Amino acid sequence: MLVTSGASLEAQAVLRLARWAGATELYITAPRDHFEVLKKISAVTVLDEDPEEWLPQLRNRMNVVVDYQYPRNFDSVREAIGKKGRLVCIPSRKKAGEGSFLSDISSIMDQYQLSLYKRSTMFDFAESFEMNPKELHEDMNFLMKLLSTRQIRPQADRFIRLKDIPKAQQQLQTRPLSGSIICEPWKD
Fold it and tell me: Would 144 be classed as within a structural domain?
């Protein structure tokens, strides 16, 4: 499995779930300054963001590719997919002008381009939430069951209070994280 944009927490969660589901070869792309932290957190092979660096190694090998940078580097991502592999594209964060006529046309064109490839799909969490709330509810219940039975465990670096956020931000400049920082504003 290859997950692009490894610096995101969502991508890291996808990899942890893939490992839980039995995936053995996991790759993640990220900026070089995130390599050490991602290796600790994810226990995966971390690759440079630049497709020229990773494509020769992964061309036609991946069973699953989750692309958090779609449509950026789409051709390279597609080349990494094996003969019977699957591609899931997560559109990049919404841009300014969201909801405008031009952004709607761009989204339609992206979906059309993706529809040309048989084993691919576009997944937009916000859209899925609006269109399939029952399915989302079932998925969340499934995840909560995995959490409650400790089959999956989030990796927390530390728990902080709301007033400790500025100090934590300063520490991020000098110390890499070994997991997520969880803010608990309701505690003293």
Answer: no
